[in-house]
Amino acid sequence: MKAVLLIASLFFLSIGRAQQTPDDIYGDLFHDVQMNKVFADGKTFVDCIPKREPKAIVNDYKKMKSVAGFSLEDFVKTNFELPATPTLSNMGQEKDVAAHIIKLWALLKREPDVKKEGSSLLPLPHPYIVPGGRFREIYYWDSYFTMLGLKESGETEMIENMIKNFSHLVNTYGHIPNGNRTYYLSRSQPPFFSLMVGILAEIKGRQVWAEYLPVLEKEYQYWMEGSDKLKNAASFKRIVKLEDGSLLNRYWDDASTPRQESYREDVETATAAVNKMLAVSHFKNAAQQKKGEEATRALVYQHLRAGAASGWDFSSRWFKDPSDLTTIETTNIIPVDLNCLLYQAELNLKLAYTLLPGKTPTELAKKSSMAAMYDRLAQSRKKAIDAYCWNPGKGMYSDYWFVEKKVSDAITLAGMYPLFVKLADKQRAEQQKNALMANLQKPGGFSTTTNTTGQQWDAPNGWAPLQWIAIRGLQQYYFVTEADEASARWVKLNTDVFGRTGKLMEKYNVVDTKLDAGGGEYPSQDGFGWTNGVLITLIKQK
User: Which of 313, 337, 482, 526 is an active site residue?
Assistant: First the structure.
C-alpha cells in the first residue's frame, strides 16, 4: 500500500512540475511587469493570454527593452490579451435580491475550458461557477458556500459538475489547488470537498458517498502525506506531530517564493522583514549577511503563501505582532478550523465506507475495517483539538502555536468551527457561544476578529462563509435566538447594500454598515459567489 501511495505521489508531483507558472515562462518580463506595476492588480498579468508563442515574446522583450522610448505597458498590451471582467452590477435593476442571485448564476457560469498555450488556466472538463470580479476561475473553499445557494436555486446539475471538476483536479494533480491556475498548484485551501459531496448526497441520495469515495480518500491522503513516518515533536508539509504523538494539520504551500499573483506585495513585505532583521542582527561578513537575508525572505514567502492557503489572506490571526504583517508565522500554527474540517472529512470517509456496496465476506470485512480506521482517526483528532485548541482563560476555541507550545489568545470566527462540525461538548459550546456574542457580534453580523489592522480578514470586516459557519454552529447546538439574530443582521446588511448599490459584495463592514469593507491587496469585488450562496440560503430559512 505504501509503495502504491509513493508511486502515486511521485506521479502527481511530476505532473505539477510540468505545469509552468507565469514567472517560469516569462522570467525577467514577468518580474519587470509586476515590480513596475504595469497593472494596478498583480493578478491581471498572470491571467493574461499571449497572442503569440511565449518564447518569441520573451526574446523580443530582451532585444527591445533597452531601446530608447521603449514602453513596457505598450509592449504588454501589444503581445497579450488582457483578461475580461464582466460587469455584474445593477443587472436588470431587480429589487428582489433573491431574484438577482438566481439571475447572477448564469453570468458567473463558465463553460468547459479549452487549453491555450501560455495561459495560466488549468482547463476543467465541466461547467462551473466563479466568484466574480478578478476571480475568473473556480476556487476551492468558495465553491462550498456557492453550492449552498445553487442547491436553494435548484441548480443540482451545476453542483455535480463542480464536484466532478474537483474530482478531476484531485485525479490529475493529487489535490484540489487554491484555484484552477498554474500559480495556485503549490497549495490547496480549507478542505470542504467532503462537505460538497454531502450537499450532493442530500439531493441525490446516499449512494453519492460511495461514488466519490476514491476521490475523497485521495484528497485526504494529500493532507496526511508523510504522517506515517513523522517522529514526535516534528512537522512535515501539512502535518504536525506533537510530543504526545497527536497528529494535527497546518496550512502549507510547497513554494517559498513570492506569490505570482501578488508578487510586488510579497517582495515588499519580505524586504521590510529583512530590513527589520538587519537592524537587530550582526554578521561576520557579506556572504553570511546575504545568506541571512535570503533565509528571511524565503521564510516570509512561505508564511505568506500558507496564509493564502488558509483563505484568510491576511489576518492578525497569523501574526506575532497583530499590527505587523512582517511578523506572519502561519506555518508555526495549528489552525482550529482546518483540523475541524479534517475531522469532518474523516467522519465522512467512515460514512462512505459504511455505504460502500459489498456482498462477499472479504468486501464486508474491508468495509468494516476501513470505517473503523477512519472513526479512530476522527476520534483521535477530536481529542487533540480539545486538548490543544481550547483556551480555558478565554472560554473559546482558538489556534495552537505549536512551536511556542501555547494556545492563541486571538478571538476569531475560526473558533466556531468546532460547533459547525459538532465536535464541542455542551459546556464548551455554551462558553464558545458566549465568547462569540460578547466579542464578535456587530450591527451587521459577526466581525472576523477583534483586531482592526487594515488586513481584510480582521475587524471591521465580515465575510459570508464565516457568517454561515457561525450561524450553522449556533443552530447545531440549538442556540436558536442567537442564530436567528445573527442571520437577520447579515441579511439586512447584504440587502441594504444591494439596495444602495445593486451589488453583492465579497466582504462587508459589519461595524459601520454605511461604510464599505476595506483592507487587502485589491479593491472589494462584487459578484459574488459565496455571498450569493449564503444569502439566498439564509433568506430561504426564514
Answer: 313
Name the residue type at position 38: V
**Angle 349-350-356 from CA coordinates, rounded to 5°:** 85
Beta strands per DSSP E along 426-526: 441-442, 445-446, 461-462, 508-509
Q: Tell me the pLDDT tens digit for each residue of 63-96.
A: 999 999 999 999 999 999 999 876 655 555 678 9
Of 48, 51, 57, which is closest to residue 26 (Cα–Cα)? 57
CB 507, CB 461: distance < 8 Å: yes
Whether the CB-CB separation of 147 and 535 falls below 8 Å is answered with no
The CA angle 155-421-196, to the nearest 5 degrees, is 25
pLDDT tens for residues 114-131? 999 899 999 999 999 999
First-to-last CA distance in the chain? 49
Of the listed ranges 265-269, 296-300, 514-518, the least confidently predicted one is: 514-518
For residue 523 the three cell numbers come to 479593491
Q: Are 466 and 419 in contact (CB under 8 A)?
A: no
Residues in the chain: 542
* HEC sequence for 123-148: CCCCCEECCECCECCCEHHHHHHHHH
313 assigned to active site: yes
Query: Is the alpha carbon torsion for 501, 129, 117, 21 positive or negative?
Result: positive
- What cell numbers appear for 231 in the block? 517522529
**Share in percent of the chain as helix, strand, coil (round to 5):** 55, 10, 35
The grid cell for 340 is 475541524
- Residues contacting 137, CB < 8 A, separation 6+: 121, 130, 179, 180, 181
User: From CA 61, how far away is CA 542, in angstroms rounded?
Assistant: 59
Between CA 439 and CA 412 the distance in angstroms is 9
Q: In the beta sheet, which residues pair with residue 248? A: 240
DSSP one-letter code for 478: T
Residue 234 sits at the vertex; the CA angle it makes with 229 and 239, to the nearest 5 degrees, is 70
Neighbours of 19 (CB within 10 A): 16
Instruction: Give the number of C-alpha atoms closer than 13 A to the C-alpha of residue 470, restricted to the C-beta side.
Output: 31
C-alpha dist (Å) from residue 287 to 120, 124, 284, 291, 426: 36, 47, 8, 6, 58
The DSSP result for 284-330, as a single string, is: SSHHHHHHHHHHHHHHHHHHHHHHHHHS--S-GGGBSSTT-GGGB-G
pTM of the predicted structure, to 2 decimals: 0.95
Instruction: Quote the CA–CA distance of 201 and 205 in Å, as a whole number.
Output: 5
Position 303, amino acid: H
- Consecutive H or E run containing 376: helix 361-388
Q: Give the DSSP H/E element, type plus range, for residue 236.
A: strand 234-236
Q: Choosing from 47, 152, 225, 506, which is the catalytic residue?
A: 506
Query: Could you say which DSSP state residue 248 is in?
Result: E
| DSSP-derived secondary structure letter, 445 | E
- Tell me how far apart the alpha carbons of residues 348 and 340 are, in angstroms, rounded to a whole number: 12
Q: How many angstroms separate the CA atoms of 473 and 486, rounded?
A: 11
